[in-house]
Amino acid sequence: MVQKIYSNAVAALDGHLIDGMTIVAGGFGLCGIPETLIAAIRAAGTRDLTVVSNNAGVDDFGLGLLLRTRQIRKMISSYVGENREFERQYLAGELEIEFSPQGTLAERMRAGGAGIAGFYTRTGVGTSLAEGREVRVFDSETYLLERGIVADLAIVKAWRADPHGNLVFRKAARNFNPLAATCGRVTIVEVEEFVGSGEIDPDHIHTPGVFVQRLILAENNEKRIEQRTIRAEAA
Amino acid sequence: MVQKIYSNAVAALDGHLIDGMTIVAGGFGLCGIPETLIAAIRAAGTRDLTVVSNNAGVDDFGLGLLLRTRQIRKMISSYVGENREFERQYLAGELEIEFSPQGTLAERMRAGGAGIAGFYTRTGVGTSLAEGREVRVFDSETYLLERGIVADLAIVKAWRADPHGNLVFRKAARNFNPLAATCGRVTIVEVEEFVGSGEIDPDHIHTPGVFVQRLILAENNEKRIEQRTIRAEAA
Amino acid sequence: MEVLPTGWTRNEMAKLAAIELQDGFYVNLGIGIPTLVANHIGPEIDVTLQSENGMLGLGPYPMADQVDADIINAGKQTITELPRTSYCSSADSFGMIRGGHIQLSILGAMEVAENGDIANWMMPGKMVKGPGGAMDLVAGVRRIIVLMDHVSKDGIAKFRRSCSLPLTGQNVVDMVITNLAIFERPDRQSPFVLRRLAPGIDAALVADLTEAHFER
Amino acid sequence: MEVLPTGWTRNEMAKLAAIELQDGFYVNLGIGIPTLVANHIGPEIDVTLQSENGMLGLGPYPMADQVDADIINAGKQTITELPRTSYCSSADSFGMIRGGHIQLSILGAMEVAENGDIANWMMPGKMVKGPGGAMDLVAGVRRIIVLMDHVSKDGIAKFRRSCSLPLTGQNVVDMVITNLAIFERPDRQSPFVLRRLAPGIDAALVADLTEAHFER
């Protein structure tokens, strides 16, 4: 059987990191982000990255780590708050940002992964994000043309995988991960747990193994919480 | 709680059948087709239907039943073999057919359900199905513009549902069903089995209840097999 | 400087918005005041809350010992599941939104214009953080209610002839609930109508503090 | 009428096609002769078969007591699961195909042209049944191998200057395996090259029975 499971992130990333490349990353905020692979890319020092990710992490966690080391040249994101270093680099002209509305960004990843070159959405019509984009009327509604995204590498966090690369995500940590998995020319996945071949019910698989080239066991599972909100016992 | 579960197909379809309407149906061949709802539409006698379905059933099963009674005016399908009555009506000019390649048809349903007016695909470029469609080059590849589909009514077959309309499909009977469920203005689902609220793991739900307006227990579960292929014990 | 009447509290505004929720609705609540709406959904109606990060059926905040980093809403707050909860990818989640399957979204705004335009993603003089899911919500959800203060901290009317800030969406707002009044329109071709005044607020004051044209 | 040498049997053609399957490949096999290719995949390579109706990881035909109406391939034949099997919707399945995630598809054809065009969905003189998934497969899968008889029942060359029948796809075929010969090209800008002859078949005969230009 083709061996998709690698011993660690360095081994899995070997041969797939090139300065100037485009990387797509799963995760929403700090939820479901590939912590182990981000740390390994930081250690590898790959530069001039274009990173496609809904958010940019915080100063000392997530993609914020790659911003600190100035490894990222451009972000394609929907929201980049909660990150002072991002703001500093952006205002200093050291970092480029392309905003995509969140649903458009998700759909662009899915489209890139599914061989759809472009699609028409109502999102963003009449806003500054529509500038330079084709506008078109279908059935008297106005739509914008948005393009699919294909990245050189996808980094993904899943909950469980089997040796074939079949993936299951856990709760709201699914978010952009299955989409990122489809739109990388190479997709590397870190998981919290490996299970044996045949141990995942074929109706419960979220991402089929065809999209996954390499797998590692996640070593970093901090899963930091951005907004810890709780209610009192009595509520 | 809003009551989505209806006592039978007649009750669930009540108020939703109008001559000349468009109905999208799940299923691939005879696998995963909404047998009970098809029978009820036949009994209701609704006419001049446009039916969006990958296939058209066989002479005496599936959508073939609605062809026999001449309730269908037009089919939008990828493949309509295995149906002599279809052929007879088509050659007699009594039935209109719009062919969509299978993947394009699936994507058109998904697009319609997801508010995507149109998308660009390489499928069909240079073929007779590209006639009258916009052709466009992205990154030196040629693509066709295809339109999303929204139907007046979706009829869907699922395996299990909870009272909220959360659906689970079984094996290859999933096929077009989750897509049809998204692109009906009203979606009615027949299931083999109801389970209680909270009994489906939230990570195992294929179609969230937001897409489902009405549910019934399937009364017809013949699940006819088109090509019964078996191997000998020794193989 | 004259002290202006404050009208409804934020909690009262949320309660007024909650009246708009109907039995069986699927609803997306924005960050900030709109989140408070959840506290006012009565047990007599069946409403399912959606969060655009891929969760349908949001439960309340967890007890301290229930906190799960993988169960968060779009505001990145920890929340809980309900028996009806399902998860999906961000693409499928925005499929619900863009495809018109969510009946109602209640959002905050910096400005709303009389033609239904909304501006709520770029703060004047601050770095642009991005639209998040706001542009998708206003473009895709069938009905949009805005909860906002009637005037800005500087006393400037937020319900305007036209938005001065970059738009989030064009002609998408159906109802505006401020601390002073409620404006609504029956469809997106019609002008807004003043529907209700906060206690102690009269129509003349609202007219004074509103730049938008509205009917009475 | 002269009796033509028949060359490879259908089973031998399938075996020759199976050589093109590499370790780790995801492969879609068309209906008819291509289905036979599955019988020739050796245990030394790890190949996953995909079926466009939403099944990845196809197992063999079931025993009589294993038949399950919900486990079928795109030819509507009953099949079985493997430990690697997963199911998905038709949209996700064609996402794999259209997105270039399937390495190889082996299909039947009525005609192939020297420029790589293929015609395999409309039979002359018969009612059009529709393309099914064939147009998606030839447009989306990275490499396309066609298995077909060298000449039609009427003795007409099927590998042609240009297709006479309506096309399924333009410039998409990479390899043609007939009962008489194998033609291949290194990329889709290059002409086809005659790679191999069936036993007892000489190049002159192949040239006689081929309308397409090919290199030797």
From TrEMBL, chains A, B:
The keyword Transferase applies. One of its GO terms (molecular function) is CoA-transferase activity. The keyword Cell inner membrane does not apply. Transmembrane segments: none annotated. Keywords: Transferase. It comes from the Bacteria. PROSITE patterns: COA_TRANSF_1. InterPro entries: 3-oxoacid_CoA-transf_A, CoA_trans_fam_I, CoA_transf_BS, NagB/RpiA_transferase-like. Belongs to the 3-oxoacid CoA-transferase subunit A family. This is CoA transferase subunit A. It comes from Sphingomonas chungangi. The lineage of its organism: Bacteria, Pseudomonadati, Pseudomonadota, Alphaproteobacteria, Sphingomonadales.
Automatic annotation (TrEMBL), chains C, D:
InterPro entries: 3-oxoacid_CoA-transf_B, CoA_trans_fam_I, NagB/RpiA_transferase-like. Keywords: Transferase. GO terms for molecular function: CoA-transferase activity. It comes from the Bacteria. Belongs to the 3-oxoacid CoA-transferase subunit B family. This is 3-oxoacid CoA-transferase subunit B. It comes from Sphingomonas chungangi.
